Amino acid sequence: MQIKESSEVYDVIIVGSGAGGGMATKQLADAGLNVAVVEAGPFFDPADPKTMTQLKWPYESPRRGANTTRAFGEWDMAYGGWEIEGEPYTHEEGTKFDWFRSHMLGGRTNHWGRISLRFGPKDFKGKTRDGYGEDWPIGYDDVKPYYDKVDKLIGVFGTNEGLENDPDGFFLPPPKPRLHELFYIEGAKKTGIPVIPSRMSMLTKKINNDRGVCFYCGQCGRSCSVYADFSAGSCLIFPAQKNGGRVKIFVNSVVREVTTNEEGKATGVSYISKEDRKEYKLKGKVVVLAASACSSARILLNSKSKQHPNGLGNSSDVVGKYLHDSTGSSRAGFIPGLMNRDVSYNEDGVGGMHVYSPWWGDNSKLDFPRGYHIEVWGGMGMPNYGFGFSPNEFNKFFNLPVGGYGDSLRDDVKKYYGSVIGFGGRGEGIARKENYCEIDPTTVDQFGIPVLKFNYKWSDLEKKQAKHMQETFEELIHNMGGTPLGDTPTKEQDYGLLAPGRIIHEVGTTRMGDDPKTSVTNKFQQLHDADNVFIVDAGPFVSQADKNCTWTILALSWRASDYIIEQLKQQNI
Amino acid sequence: MDRRKSIQTIILGAGASALAFHGCKTEGEKITQDIPAAEDTKYFGRTPEELELIEKLDAEQLFNEHEMETIAVLSTVILPPKEPHGGPIEADVPAFIEFMGKDIPEMQTTLLGGLMWLDHKSNTEYGVEFKNATLEQQKAILDPIAFHDPEIPLEEQPLEIQFFFLMRGLTVTGYYTSKVGIGDLGYKGNMPNVWDGVPEDVLAKHGMSYDPEWVAKCVDQSQRAVIAEWDEKGNLLT
Q1: Rounded to an integer, what distance in angstroms lies between the CA atom of residue B163 and that of residue A403?
Q2: Is CATH 3.50.50.60 the right assignment for the domain spanning A1-50+68-155+230-320+445-456+506-573?
Q3: Could you tell me the pLDDT band of residue A3, with boundaries at 50, 70 and 90?
Q4: Which Pfam families does the record associate with it (chain B) (predicted)?
Q5: Interface residue of A227, A345, A409, A487 to substitute, partner B, most B CBs within 10 Å
Q6: Residue A195 confidence class, pLDDT cut points 50, 70, 90
Q7: Which of residues 85-104 of B touch A (CB under 8 A)?
Q8: Is ipTM over 0.85?
């Protein structure tokens, strides 16, 4: 089989179309460069009625929203999931990593929670602060101008609070709290935990004439058909095209490797088309990887050549190392004060929480070095599969019988509707060399590409943090007049700490640094080993912070794009 | 996209009550934005592969006619119909249970075995199949299995208790995810609106109030259609 080679030479080939790839596409195409975007999944536009799930009712589906084919329920707008048929990944025995992949234009930005938090000044200098991990080669001041630009380009609601490590920005006004969130604010006050309006990328106010304004259906996970939430396709790639940019999108194209020449510089990529299962080559002057931290590491490790025998960019042997996800532990509580809800009004609001708690603790007085923030859920949501499965379980709190049948079930459902509140702690784990992904030489996917093998274990530090989360949640629930549901997770259960990967914040596999021996890219996300290859997903993150990674991916991708434009102008690459 | 509707038409078209307009009262600026028609139920957003799976499951049969009738009778005993929002039959609960049994095959043995248990018990006690027993007889069969000890894990309880728990769960979830069930619940969402906080009377009922300082930072819905502009310090000007 002969590999088909295109004659066109693109200025830039971008692999992946999520947050990082989308932002690079927008900036590089706006600068007049000829861009090819290579995406493993199909084309996707949130406004297409054929694929749209927004505003669907549960009864439009025979399974009423159950999660048989989509991990987060069948209305969730992520094609892919924890397991993808024909595209396996493996594990070192005794270790865990759950890998969520979404193959479609816009990637995981189509369904994400839109929690858009800047890293603070302390987050870039973790080692200086507590001795763990490594400092970033850049600081908050390097990224701040880009955070500001991302705020204005994409839109994020929130408030300027003047907090040291949760910096202010250019915010749209936040929505008012819902009823359960008022209960939370009160309970947190008693507990001594601060609460502020959330910071999320939905448009509560018009930001330009191309995107709509939030109409409060609470379904951002379904991707907004009027583009009132941030998805990389609707907010970056389509606008780049509309702006007259030269953007050619190759969908259903799975990149196998970056091709290189005698000098070791990249010449383009090779990919397999899912449509005809044949291998193709694209030529480009610059290659930008944005396939997700783990996928980009996989592509680099699979890009072996005479010049790069250990994989492209891997002379340091650091590609795949320092993989880390956010920590996560959750708990729910029953709040009697929220019983017998008045259903006369629509409280869908925006998708997810209207309020949250940024990290408030002083780690120097705690037995774990890094913090976490608290996410809050609850309210009178739309029923979907699973609703009312145990309609009167809370009767046990009132010494009433649990179970039964008949008219009383209707009363029970209404009595308890909206009376549960839930918390998710999302914290920072320490980046460690011993937690990594590598190529599994024994296994290939259905396209013949060697797959990743994961090796990841939480340390006691993350487990102690999860213990603190559970203690905090129980105190909060009690201070809201409620009862925690289920038993307190034990030490044997790692205090409810979810398996690595579960929070879907994979970062760190191609970390940046000034020393080519201990890092994969420089501070502009350019490979130390090949100056025309850049990585703009979360791979170059040195550490995660107790913040969700997307806003930082966007800011850093913009920053790296500016650098690429400058280097091309100066004919340095 | 030939069936686009403005927000206003969707709200009116959906037959919302005056209460659904609650949040719109303060609306100074009208926003006309097109939302693609949401009632295209042929796809409900499925991929071709997902549609194929549904077609495949639809072509299979899990329960025979007698079992389907028994499910219909049992689900109606569990959740009797009530005007004006009907019951499990109006909510297509039997068809939903049939589909879920195929969609989540792990449930099949419990469901099939439990149905056999019901008839066996009814035949033994009353010499009649469950579906043809009197309501009194049906209740006498269900009473001992309808209340489980919540402190004991379900999988450690007898099959008939697990079966009833599952049937009740599927019946209640099937009903409340149906059009009539959502009507009974009174859920007012899943339609375009303008969120402007919890109504005063609801706040009062739960002993809550908004902190004026907090609310002052929140969105002024009369300005939502005005494009955002900031000063250099990040203060919103519009």
Answers
A1: 13
A2: yes
A3: confident
A4: Gluconate_2-dh3 (PF13618)
A5: A345
A6: very high
A7: 91-92, 95-96, 99-100, 103-104
A8: yes
